[in-house]
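Hi C.,

You asked whether I'd gotten around to modeling the 64-residue construct. I have! Everything is below, sequence then structure, no commentary in between.
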Amino acid sequence: MNASSGIHKGTGTNNRFTSPQRITITVSAMTLKKLLMRSVVEGRSVSNLSAYLLEKSLDGDSED
């Protein structure tokens, strides 16, 4: 299995992870500032807010 893609090598089948997976991204200074300000207002961590926003933005996508 290739953990970074969530695909079993050679099978082409999706692996439904049972636990969250960690990623690293780079964002602009302005995006970070907005995330920090919103996380304080909402009382959540930047990581939690980022994961929520990413998941929300992908909600309508088809599952491959």
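If it helps when you're writing up: The two ends are 16 Å apart (CA to CA).

Thanks,
B.
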